[in-house]
Amino acid sequence: MIEVPAREESKRLHKNAADLKTLALELGLSQSTVSRALRAHPGIPATTRQRVVAAAEAAGYRPNARARSLAIGRAETIALSFPLERLQLPETNFVDVLAGISTAVTRRNYSLLLSPFQGDEAAVLRKLASSKSVDGVIITRPLVEDPRIGLLNQLRLPFVVHGRSEVKEAYSFVDTDNDNAFERLTGLLLDYGHRHIVAINGLAQFRYVAARAASFRRAFAARGLTPLPDAIEFVSMTEATGYETALRRLDDPQRPTAFICGSVFQARGVYRALGERGLKVGVDMSVVCHDDGVRGCSAADFVPPLTATATSIRSAGEQLALILIDLIEQNAPEPVHEILPFELVLRDSVALAQPQR
Amino acid sequence: MIEVPAREESKRLHKNAADLKTLALELGLSQSTVSRALRAHPGIPATTRQRVVAAAEAAGYRPNARARSLAIGRAETIALSFPLERLQLPETNFVDVLAGISTAVTRRNYSLLLSPFQGDEAAVLRKLASSKSVDGVIITRPLVEDPRIGLLNQLRLPFVVHGRSEVKEAYSFVDTDNDNAFERLTGLLLDYGHRHIVAINGLAQFRYVAARAASFRRAFAARGLTPLPDAIEFVSMTEATGYETALRRLDDPQRPTAFICGSVFQARGVYRALGERGLKVGVDMSVVCHDDGVRGCSAADFVPPLTATATSIRSAGEQLALILIDLIEQNAPEPVHEILPFELVLRDSVALAQPQR
DNA sequence: CCGTACCATGCAAGCGCTTGCATAATACAC
DNA sequence: GTGTATTATGCAAGCGCTTGCATGGTACGG
User: CA within 20 to 30 Å of A260's CA: A77, A145, A351, B333, which one?
Assistant: First the structure.
């Protein structure tokens, strides 16, 4: 029996036991037992566990995360690596992914470290790996041949990619079904009789852009048709480029009858251009879009409402985090590949193609 | 002289020295010296330092952040506590703050932990404090009487508030100059002859909302006028509420001649409502807005462009992080109060009030 | 050549937690 | 009553770094 001095007793009331040691002392137990009790290790009888848990709660004790992570060799933290610009532009997709990641990370009792970079992402990844500040990392926007995949494999830092790359190495990813979404949108316009369709796509370096371009052509091919050689525009995903591109194509003597946009932002720009040229969406011109936008900047709020393929970017974020944590905890020995479905939401932005003008 | 076995030598080439110990061994120095050299402590001669730094770089060595933070008692990490919804809605302000925080945190060689909550923020803050995962926290959207301030002071967790509260306790904050911005906008409309102005404000529980309401009245008072009793609407900061509120006020027999909005989102809703009622902004009706929006959803892109007060939310974020880190590192013993200026950008959304209808 | 400085480096004790192994205590079988 | 399982708990060695203090070595003035 250990004599607990009265001082200790009063201490318990006054200050939160910040310490495993103090807590153990107060309970008259060893640190090991207390530690194991808190983690519900087998071999600790329920009565002891309850006593310990109650005391910990009363004292407001929580294990020091730094010490714990040093001891167990894991930080129970993952990082999201991203170019800082994705926070500067109104990249709602990114924010949506972030929301999904946050949710899942919290649910699994992990923490999320934000790791923005400007310029040299590889250096940041190297630093994350060698300083062991996180157990794994999520990377986004893979290039067609993305060097980060090789690097991370070599650094042995668990990672998951949002999107796919064409590299031969093994890696886990979560991606939306771009391939079929763009094909579906294109098919829709073709079935409405449109032939001169302009696809406002993203920048060619990204894999998903290539995938979308291919899907576009596939939809034509499936109907025994061929798009015009300059049907696809490879530009950035902003309102401004959507606007400029649309304007340029509208002023072309060969004016298209429909636009497919890669994002709501581009679509917003297209709407603006059409407005300026006095063309009514869904009457004089058809517009569709991949990416439904997020609440408040949503395709549904366009005037007229925009027909679009919607995917839950948020759940992509959740999957990314969950898969990464599984990878870290070895629950998933094999690389995981997940392709999320999309949904086509018909609204009022598509008209039957004019017979001929 | 220590005999370094050949194996060690080859090891150096093959695998990155993950360890202070190994690195020290390779250099024939003690851990202390290597550690101090890397941190550029005084007392380590330059030649030694260079040798050590070179070896560390060659080996790709970076101190284990977990061990370091345990040893120094700091995590060199701060958290941003926020309600998860702020990532779900297109809260561009929030993202802008986040961008600013990210930038500053990175610049100071700290890390940023994202700490979203749903429901009980106090519990999350308590956990952050007791598990010592971060050295400090940024909180946002203070209430008029915000209990978090007392809590954090009591937990002795350094913190900075984005915005102000009315609590008596000491705390550091960064805020925009809401007080004067709303007054300026109101004054502008009054000077254009408007008298029946509706202010679409935020929810009353937030301190900045109260501040804006007061400024609104102050502008009237400064001209010997009084706003109508129901001039101020306390609603949420979304497009939908902007729309609904505007519609309701437009259909009121006492139709206002001008609207002031608390955010671009509300303003977007107002524009939509006006469109539906066939009213032309800047001709039949005047609209101004506090908050310039961010690129791509900016007041400048409205049709017609929206007159607004602009503040750099991003630099608010930077200040928040910098101040917090100073607080943590004791560079700022006193609470810091920073009020950021705004700028009034005149565009085309304001007309002279009709003589009388 | 000695004493005092000062310089360059090392020793070892933490930081607070986890965990393999050991140990005391109890239960059970015979 | 003895031997063996089983149970409940403790010991102590880390995890990899920092840092106060100690130490051996060199420089320098007298």
Answer: A145
Q: What is the pLDDT of residue A297?
A: 67
Q: Check residues B354 and A28 and name the one with the higher pLDDT.
A: A28
Chains A, B: CB pairs < 8 Å: 133
Who's near A51: CB < 8 A, 6+ residues apart? Answer: A27, A37
CATH of the domain at B134: 3.40.50.2300
Segment B90-116 shows an average pLDDT of 91
Residue A352 in domain: no
User: Is the predicted pLDDT of residue A295 greater than 70, yes or no?
Assistant: no
B1 located within any domain: no
Domain final residue pick, B17, B32, B63: B63
Amino acid A65 CA to nucleotide D30 C1' distance, rounded Å: 59
Q: pTM score, two decimals?
A: 0.87
Residues A193 and A170 in one domain: no
B176-211 pLDDT, tens digit each: 998 899 999 999 999 999 999 999 999 999 888 999
**Percentage above 90 pLDDT, chain A:** 75
Residue A350 domain flag: no
Q: Do A113 and B77 touch (CB under 8 A)?
A: yes
Q: CA at A43, C1' at C17: how many angstroms apart?
A: 19
**Interchain proximity A70–B66, CB inside 8 Å:** yes
Q: How far is A329 from chain B (nearest CA, A)?
A: 18
Torsion of CA A46, A47, A53, A58, to 10 degrees: 160
| Domain around B213 | 178-311
Which residue reads 């926290």 in tokens?
A: B137
What total of structural domains would you count in chain A? 3
Angstrom distance, A68 CA to D6 C1': 30
Both tokens of A96, joined, read 């949506």
Closest CA to B273 of B344, B201, B346, B200: B200
B59 touches strand D (CB under 7 A): no
Identify the residue with better confidence: A119 or B11.
Answer: A119
What CATH number has the domain bearing residue B10? 1.10.260.40
Same domain, A146 and A53: no
The answer to whether the beta carbon of residue B16 comes closer than 7 angstroms to any atom of strand D is: no
> Tokens for A283?
């009457």
| Chain B residues with CB-CB distance to A88 below 8 A | 96, 99, 294-295, 314
- A13 band by pLDDT with thresholds 50, 70 and 90: very low
